[in-house]
Amino acid sequence: MTIAAELKNVTKVFGNKTAIDSINLQIYEGEILALLGPNGSGKTTILKILAFIENPTYGEVKFQGETVSFKNTEKARMQSTLAFQKTTLFDTTVYNNIAYGLKIRKIPEEVRNEEIGRMLRLVKLEGFENRPARKLSGGEQQRVAIGRALALKTKLLLLDEPTANLDPKNASIVEEIIATVNREHKTTIVMATHNMFQAKTLPQRIALMSDGKITEVGTPAEIFGKLSKNLASFVAVDNTYAGTAKITENGTTLVDVGNDVRIEATIQSSGKVSVFISPEDIILSKDRFSSSARNIFKGKIVEISDLGSVVRLKVDVGKTFTVQITKRSFKEMGLNLNAEVFLAFKASSVQIV
Amino acid sequence: MVDILEGIAKAIQLIITGDPTLYGIVYRSLFFSGIAVLLAMLWGTPIAMLIGLRDFRGKTIIKGFFNSLIGIPTVVLGLVLYLVFSKGGPLGFLQLLYTPGAIILGEAVLVTPILISIATTAIEAVDPEIMNLAKTLGASESQAAIAVLKEAINGVLLSNIASFNRAIAELGVALLVGGNIAGLTDILTTAISRYTQRGELDLAIALGIILMVIVFLINMIIITARKAKMLFTLGRSPQ
Question: What angle, rounded to 10 degrees, do the helices at B141-151 and B20-53 form?
Answer without folding.
Answer: 130
